[in-house]
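Limitations
The structure tokens in this dataset are predictions for the assembled complex, not deposited experimental models. Users should treat interface geometry with appropriate caution, especially where small molecules or nucleic acid strands are included. An illustrative entry is reproduced here so readers can see what is and is not provided.
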Amino acid sequence: MSKEESYEQAAMCYRRAGYDLEAARCYRSAGAHRRAAEIYEADRRYAFAATSFADAGLPELGAWLLAHLAGLPEQARVLLGTPPLEGDHDADAAIDTIPPSLRRRLVLSRCEIAEGSGPDVIRPVIADACAALADRSVRSDQVIEEWAVALSEAAARYDLAALVFAAAVRGGRYGADHRWKAWSVRVLGAEVIVPSPSPATPSIPAAPPGSAAPPGSTAPPGSTTPPAPATAA
Amino acid sequence: MRRRTNDGPARRLPGAGSVSPEPQQDPGSTADDEPSVPEPPLPEPQEPSEPRSFEVLARFVAAARALTFAEQAMQATQRDSAECYRADDGSWWVAARLLLGAAREMAGLGEGRLYVRTADGYAADRGWGDEPAGPPAGSLPGLVPVTLLELVKVAGLHRAPVRPLGEACLLVPGYLASDVLERAQDRQLRATYQQVRLDPLFADASAEPWVCYAILLTVDPAAARRGPAGMGQAGMGQAAPGEAAPARDMLSGVLLSALADNPFILVCRPVDRTLLVAYGTASPLSDQALGRLVAAGGDATWLLAPPPHGCARVTWTGEPLDADGLVRLGPAHALIEVDGTQPYAEPAATARGPEPRPVTLVPAIARWTPVDAVLVDDADLDCLPLLLAGDPLADSAVLVRGAGRHLLTAPGGLLTELAVGEPLTCVGPGSVYIPLGYRLDPPIGPAARAALFRPDARIAQVVLRDARLGYDLETAEPVWRLWAGPVPELNSQLPRAARADLDQAAAEIGDAPRIPDRAHSRLGRLLPQPARPEADPSGWRLEARQAERTRDYVTAAQLYARHNEPLRAARMWERDAEEKY
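Predicted assembly:
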């Protein structure tokens, strides 16, 4: 049994015993940085989690934690500048369906919001996120939708969050309509009715960047499918 | 004829001079429309037309003004050169293709006269309105083409404000270079020097060349950070009146002016290493345009300086050398051989290699470390019954007695902190313990620890700052023996009838009944007492302890995991990983 396997066994036993931080330490020693990062994130130790994500080759995830949850945009920017480590043992780290530039731009926009920039700085990246989510040829990436919605919330641009959900529904992202409803209830205090898109409905081209709807609008830009959700008081 | 669509008169701003609107200008493109005046509806939309360019000739009486016009014409047409002419009457002419309005403004700036090319020839422009449509002007004077360089030569250099420079180039004769360089080093400036050859700029290249040294001065950033003593501006005094305080990385204008006052020194302002312009002067042609002229001429650098300094083509010879090379050192600075007085060198015969230092303990970065054992003294032993009696740990913990200090441990580690004693953690290999919060110094890995400590399955070692204690694990006894003494003697309870029979038989044979030491066979031989102990429910723990002592941590971990003790299993897995290298 290799050293890394012994550390993994130790980590699993520590988790069974309820010693999560010790488990995370052993996971890091075993090279399973992503699992360590998830434990640190659940324990709200965002700095450790960000470092572990970066070691797992996912600096964007770590930078998002720092910028969005820890409120440390400067450290997030520093983390984005670090190249991912080679030879990581996490196979999950290689999965990246969306070009990392979009994730990176979302994180950088979140950093700008955290640093006090105006809400309009997020419009270009939200437009690109909508385009990626509405494109059925792009594999699903839950992170893009989640981050785009969170970014819109942080900027108090709930209309842009609605655009993101609408794009996800148009792109056929699994469960997007339910997430939209739950978000609406949680944030707006009102329930939206989202018609299920017809399977025969052709893919609607993504809205070009900069053509986002004016503030207050919840309708997808330039499209009628799905129709504008009705808000029930 | 092309008519202006804007019928209103051209707006004339008070005191702003003439404004020359372009003919055929798009009415929608004027930026100063007044929205308060309602415009009558246009009968039909018209196609917007591009402004028309005209071939123009501008006449100037001064070369500097012609050069100014040429500079603006080149910028407007994005060209690197301009067509220049010299007339018989001494006037200078510049030809260009420009918008008429722009050409009028440019010519008006230099008080020039503008001629516009028509179908019949060049017609004098009246300076406003549409292009001249009348007959051409009388015969133009005879024009002789001249180069832009000729125009630069005649135009000369005018005075420019004295400003701080990031870099300055001094042209000095060789016999003065050392003094200037020492002076620069006194001011803690960064100075390099390089020989240059000066060839005539306006005459043939076959003329006799001249040689001098170019000294490049810049501010040493390190010296500038140290304070005002090093910078050039402080070395020569404060900034001149009216001069803004120079930046720390700029050469002071006062310093440069003082250097320029020396008649043997020509202070120049380098422009991209292609142009050296005398400090405090400038040409009507911009530095960028002059740089393009240099490139077009195929030269490396031009020197432009007013009389009496002269202009030249500059050829750099060799590489720039640092000024430190010219510093005259005293005899004590001559290079010497290594003679044994140097503290860094030892004689080869007695040289010793690096000496290993003893392994000791130093405080470590605090992090959670499992407690595998506790070192207790005699006084602490009295407290153990109070702490452990009734605790499940007491069932498995063992005490190894020593001389004054004793080792309390448990299979798989104590994994809990007690209120007494010094907590220890096992660093391996085997049973090698160090106090919690410390690490070995120098840091050594498992292989080195195995070689140095020689772990033995029978001996537990405790490494302290100044000692290494050994405990014989064979003498370990359960810790509960500290408070649990012997139990009462076992009294076999026989029934009364059996007891009466035994008493009667004893009376008959005259011997008191006694309990046989051992059982007898029918033939009167002793039989071995069959041992029938109850199975110890914690026997697996002894097995795990033995596996741990033999460093079979995997077996120990599996035993603990099987008996639902994941924390001890984790500790065994971790020790197994830590001892692998």
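Some entries come with short summary sentences. For this one: The longest strand of chain B covers residues 189-200.
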